[in-house]
Write a structure and sequence with these properties.
Number of strands: 0
Number of helices: 3
Oligomer: single chain
Order of helices and strands: HHH
Number of domains: 1
Strand content: under 5%
Distance between the termini: 64 Å
C-alpha cells in the first residue's frame, strides 16, 4: 500500500493510526506505559496486603502450632538426652517458648554458616 503523500509530509491516515496506537513519537507511549506499570505494582502490592490482612489469623494459628510442635519435640529430645523420664503433659506453655528458642537457635546457626 503506497501513500500518495510526498516524502516530507505525513498522511492524515498515518497520523490517526499512530494516535490510536498510542505511539506518537514513542515518547507518550513510554511515559504512559511507565505510569501504568507503577500503578499496577502498587495495585498488586495493595491486593497482597489486603489478602494478608484477611488471612493473618490463619497464618498466626499455623505459626503457633508449628512453634508448639517444635518446642514439644525439642524439649522431649533434650530430656531424653539427659536421661530424665519423658512424662510430658499434652498441653503446656513451655513448649511454645522452647519452640521459639529452638527456632532462634536454628536461624542463628544458619546465618553463622553463611
Amino acid at each position: 500500500m503506497l501513500s500518495s503523500a510526498t516524502p516530507g509530509q505525513d498522511s492524515a491516515e498515518g497520523w490517526r493510526r499512530r494516535q490510536r496506537s498510542g505511539n506518537a513519537c514513542g515518547i507518550r507511549y513510554a511515559t504512559r506505559k511507565g505510569k501504568n506499570a507503577v500503578a499496577d505494582g502498587w495495585t498488586a502490592l495493595s491486593d497482597k496486603a489486603k489478602t494478608f490482612a484477611v488471612d493473618w489469623t490463619a497464618y498466626a494459628a499455623l505459626g503457633s502450632v508449628v512453634l508448639y510442635l517444635l518446642g514439644y519435640l525439642a524439649l522431649r529430645f533434650h530430656l531424653t538426652v539427659l536421661g530424665i523420664g519423658t512424662d510430658l503433659s499434652v498441653l503446656d506453655e513451655r513448649y511454645l517458648f522452647a519452640g521459639a528458642k529452638f527456632l532462634v537457635y536454628l536461624v542463628s546457626a544458619e546465618l553463622l554458616l553463611y
